[in-house]
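Shape matters. Shown next:

___
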Amino acid sequence: QVQVVESGGGLVQAGESLRLSCAASGSIDSVSVMNWDRQVPGKQRELVASITLDGSTIYAHAVKGRFTISRANAKNTVFLQMNSLKPEDTAVYYCGARGIGGWHWGQGTQVTVSS
């Protein structure tokens, strides 16, 4: 069984920062990629940031330059540093880990940015 657990969401004002954390544990081998996605009710889920085992990253255009994804020495742990937050960043943020058997996702953590 695989568990993916996110933490660090909350309510902040525009311009402030938040740091999300995610840890994947259990029967998951060779995690090659870890992603942060987000979803607003009524809208399609979208990729926010992705990081590979060798540290290569990609970002959505909307967050480039403001968000940073990083991977801890414990390779199944990732962070999302979110700076200069905007009201349009409000969403449920999901962490995913891709192992040999496919993707595993957490339950999500709410991020709310007030104007």
The mean pLDDT is 94. The CA atoms of residues 73 and 105 lie 20 Å apart. The longest strand covers residues 18-26.
